Amino acid sequence: MRFFSKITVLCNVCFMVYVTLWYVEVRNRLPGTTNQVIPLSWLENVFVILGFGSILVNALFLLLVFIFTAFKVSVKIPRWIIIFNLAVFCAQVLFHFFIKQVR
Predict the structure, then answer these.
(1) Lowest mean pLDDT among 27-31, 65-69, 76-80
(2) What's the burial of 67, exposed, middle or buried (CB within 10 Å: 0-12/13-18/19+)?
(3) Listed residue (3, 2, 5, 1) closest to 57, CA to CA
(4) 12 and which of 3, 44, 60, 88 could share a cystine (Cβ 3.0–4.6 Å)?
């Protein structure tokens, strides 16, 4: 479970980088063009893939933490990781279902 928590944190950091790159692309795009602002498309694609997948990984992690807590199983994960993942999960839900749909 500790390894899975580290993977979840890494995916959540990639999500935050993806949101930052998305915001830069949307803000600096000229109307009527499809030019990319950041020329490192392969690096951007890595962050996009991990950023989109992070909502599933994060949901699974939080579900496992909830199940382990409900059955009183000792989880040796620092509390800040659980709080960080919960906060990022709320941001992911807001971004994917509300913010990105508006733009």
Answers:
(1) 27-31
(2) exposed
(3) 5
(4) 88
Say what the alpha-carbon torsion angle 103, 42, 21, 47 is, to the nearest 10 degrees. Answer: 90
Model confidence pLDDT, tens digit, residues 9-31 = 999 998 998 888 888 777 776 66
Burial level of 44, CB count in 10 A (0-12/13-18/19+)?
buried
User: What is residue 75's predicted lDDT score, i.e. its pLDDT?
Assistant: 84
Dihedral of the CA atoms 24, 26, 32, 35 (nearest 10)?
40
Are the CB atoms for 86 and 8 separated by under 8 Å?
no
